[in-house]
Amino acid sequence: MLRILSAVSLLAAPPHALPGTPLASPVQDKAASQRAPLATPTEVLAACVVEKPTELFKVLWVVDGDTIHIEREGEREKLRLLSIDTEEKYNKGNTSETKPWTRYGEQATGWAQGFLMPRSPADGEIRVGLRFPGGVESYDPYGRLLCHVVTAEGIDFNLLMVRTGLSPYFNKYGNSRIDHDRFVAAQKAAQAEERGVWDSRTNAGGKKRPYAKLMPWWQARADAVQAHRDLVAKDPLRYVTADEPDALAAAIENGPREVTVLALVDKFYEEDDGSRTVLLRGGDKRRSVRVRIPKELRSAMEKHDLDHSHEDFRQNYWLIDGTLQNGSRGFDLVGAAVEDWRLAGPDPR
C-alpha cells in the first residue's frame, strides 16, 4: 500500500510533476480561489477501495491509461478497462476531433505505467486482480477483455483514474454495472477539485478534447442502454442485446423467438439479390447478429439513415423487433419491417 500511496501522492505534487493536480498559475484567479480543497491521497484511495482480489495476474505492459496486457493462464490477455477513456497519446495518424492526441494523453499513459509497472528491479512484478460486471466475462470487437483492474491491496484502478481526473466517467456504452454511483461521485469530486481533464488549463495551447459536447452524447446513449436493461431485467428472453451472445443463445434455446434487440450498427454487406445485410456490433464476430433488409424495403428504410447512424453526437443505439434464430454465421434477426427499427433513446442533436 505504501507504493500506491506514494504514487497517488505525486498527484498532489507541484504542477510540473504528474497529472491529476490543478495546474499552478502565477496569478491566483477568482476561479482558482473557488476550487474545492484537494482531497488527501489517503482520502482519494479510500474512495476507490473494493474487496481484495483472490486471484492475481502479472502485468506485462501498460499500453495507455485504459488498456493493459496481463499474463493469464500462460497467455497474453489484452484488457480494455471499463468506464474510463483516457486521452490519446501521440499518433501522427490521429485526425479525430473528438479524441485527438493530447499532451495530457501522454501524461496519463506515463502515470498509469508508473502505477502498474515496476519502477525498478526492487519492485518485482506487479500483479492485479480483475472485476467483471455480474461476474460475466465479455470482449469488445477488438478482442480485448472488458473489466476493472484491482490492485492486490484492493484499490479499483478504474475508479482511481476517474477520482484523480485522469479520465472522465466513460458511460458511452452504458452506465457501470458494478459501481455507477461511485463513478458519478468520483467524477463530481474530481470536477470540484479541478483535477486533470477538469482543469481548464490542461492541454493549454494544444488540442483539447470537447467534453462539453461529448458528455451529453454519452449520457443519451447511456440512458438508452439503461432503459433497455430495465426491460431485460423483467423479461430476459424477450429483450436482448446484440453484444451479449450468451443471452442471445439462451433466448432461442428452444427455438426461434420474437425479440427486441438493442444494437449498434457495425457494417453493411451488399447481397447478390439486391438485399442488404446489416451486421450489428458484437464482441464475438462468430456470434454476431445479422439483419437482412430485402430489396423491396431498401427505399423505405432510407428514412432511418442507417449509413450515418455511427456518427458522433447522435443517438447511435437502435431497437429492432424481429424473430431471432440461429444463422450460418451467428444469429439472424428476420422479419424486421421498416417500422420495427426505432431509435432506442432521445437524439442529442
Report the radius of gyration as a whole number of Å. 22 Å
Q: What is the correct CATH architecture of the largest domain?
A: Beta Barrel
Give the CATH class of the largest domain. Answer: Mainly Beta
Helicity range? 10-25%
- The shape is globular
Provide structural commentary.
By secondary structure, the chain is an alpha+beta fold. 25% of the residues lie in helices and 23% in strands. It contains 9 helices and 12 strands. The protein has helices spanning 2-9, 30-33, 41-46, 103-116, 157-163, 180-192, 211-234, 245-251, 298-301, and strands at residues 57-64, 67-72, 75-81, 127-131, 145-151, 239-241, 257-270, 276-280, 289-293, 317-327, 330-334, 341-343. Strands 1-2-3-5-4 form a 5-stranded mixed β-barrel. Strands 7-8-9-11-10 form a 5-stranded mixed beta barrel.
Give the helices and strands, then pairings.
Elements: H1 2-9, H2 30-33, H3 41-46, E1 57-64, E2 67-72, E3 75-81, H4 103-116, E4 127-131, E5 145-151, H5 157-163, H6 180-192, H7 211-234, E6 239-241, H8 245-251, E7 257-270, E8 276-280, E9 289-293, H9 298-301, E10 317-327, E11 330-334, E12 341-343
Helix pairs in contact: 5-6
